[in-house]
Amino acid sequence: MIRTQAWLDSHGLKLAAEKTELILLTKKHIPLEVSMKLTGITLKTQRVIKYLGVRLDPRLTYWAQMQHAAAKAAKATAYLSRLMANIGGPTQSKRKLLMSTTLNILLYGAEIWADTLQKNNRCKILSRAHRTAALRVASAYRTVSGEAILVISGTVPIDLLAAERKKM
After folding, report:
1. I need a surface site. Which of 14, 64, 102, 161 has the fewest CB within 10 A?
2. DSSP 82-134
3. Which residues of the chain have a pLDDT value below 70?
4. Are 39 and 15 in contact (CB under 8 A)?
5. What does pTM read for this prediction?
């Protein structure tokens, strides 16, 4: 931080400490709670920070991003589902719009964190929100299995969609 402050001073720049967030990104098993002093202000490391809409954690597991995306997609699906009756209601194309909205929320930044979905528990949290949206698209009961509802609604599993986005 001393070198950073010296560089800023030599270029006539100032750091806005109230807007500055500090996170230590490492895969090593070291303490992640660190304090750094900068021009009389002490900055403490954060557990999670948001950078360009993606939540980063110190170990780069993207668990916070997945939890946030799943909660946000579930909320959006619930709001949009209230507009559409399960029996009758809007056409299939309007229901597909619901699915695309949910998928865009779930897959934001997937190019970065798609590899972390290889662990089953991480994929499960996103699949729950994806399944709910698929149930609304197909106008099905909640007792239909996750794999069956994805086939009926004509959508691809979330882990495969994330891998596809990463490849593109």
Report:
1. 14
2. HHS-SSS-S-HHHHHHHHHHHHHHHTTTHHHHGGGGGSHHHHHHHHHHHHHHH
3. 85-90, 120
4. yes
5. 0.79
Q: Residue 148 has what pLDDT?
A: 92
Cα–Cα distances in Å, from 34 out to 20, 22, 50, 65?
A: 14, 9, 18, 22
d(CA 163, CA 168): 9
Structure tokens belonging to residue 119: 């662990």
CA distance 168 to 162: 10
8 Å CB contact between 92 and 44: no
**What token pair was written down for 107?**
């897959």
Tokens read off for 68 = 């946030």
